[in-house]
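ok here's TetR/AcrR family transcriptional regulator, seq below lol
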Amino acid sequence: MTRTGRPPLTQERRAEIRLEIARAAVDLFVRQGVTGTTGDQIGQAVGMSARTLWRYFPSKESCVRPLLTAGIDVIAVCLRDWLPGQPLEEAFARVLHTEGRVVAGPEPAAVGALVRLTRTEPGLRAVWLQAHDEAEPVFAHALAARSGLPADDLRPALRAAMLNAALRVAVEHYAWHTPGPGQDPATAEAELTASIRSALAVAAEGLR
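and the structure came out like this:
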């Protein structure tokens, strides 16, 4: 029997759509607040119905998750490849470009706007903290693999918690100490990179 209808979306295309939704949601949240934004409006901004939108996300607040989780897998790979005696910053070379740009991750300006909103929007704060909560065991598993320790060993779990907290604080420091809308994208990238570099330097002291 010949199948009809649209072919299923590839995993890569679904990820692209989720990121498009996240960008649109942040833009609307910044302009009119979370309470003043509806699922219909987010859907319209990306050319889909609210019914289709809810197939990708369970709530309007969760629409921003792709902007918060984009770098987790990349960080995990960096940790697994981190060589003994190698500076932590060097291990993150694939995340921190030599020219100061943050690559393989979310857009600094959008993330800054989103994290600034977490100060006054409890729903977004919950999504932000949940993203980091889910990242921690991923980091712990990577650190355990690097050290040849069991996945359930306490030591990589503690190191992962330290690194996770350092990265969260770095992004929050960037978001809460930058001017916000209208910032030059290149400046935003440079400032976020500087915050992450500082956080990695501090975290490395306890991760050796």
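fwiw The chain has two domains: 11-63, 70-207. kinda neat tbh
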